[in-house]
Amino acid sequence: MSPGQPICMNHGFTLIEVLASLGLCVLLATATASAVAFASRAERAAAREGEAAFLLQTLYAAQRLRPDDLPVAPRGWRVEHGTSIVKLSDETLREWHLLSVRPDGQERPPLTLCILDDAP
Question: Cα separations (Å) of 95 from 65, 85, 91?
């Protein structure tokens, strides 16, 4: 009997298989992290928009009650006040109040409430 080809059985994975599976795991982890980050960012933005909508109504009421005083900004928000004189169609001059509201520390465009004298 002549000896035949030795049967060599490989047990385990090759380096290419291990690297490919690690690459797929990294890809899956990255996709999951970006989806979670997007969802949390959208949730924070929706919460801020809800707060801003309520805050605008509060600022409007404060401006109607005390038109000479600047409304107090709640914690976490910044209120900027500006005035200008506008000429109406009947040639009268009125004071135009601009209240710009934005969250602290964020580069988002401000929400602006325009008030003519003490009425919007």
Answer: 17, 5, 13
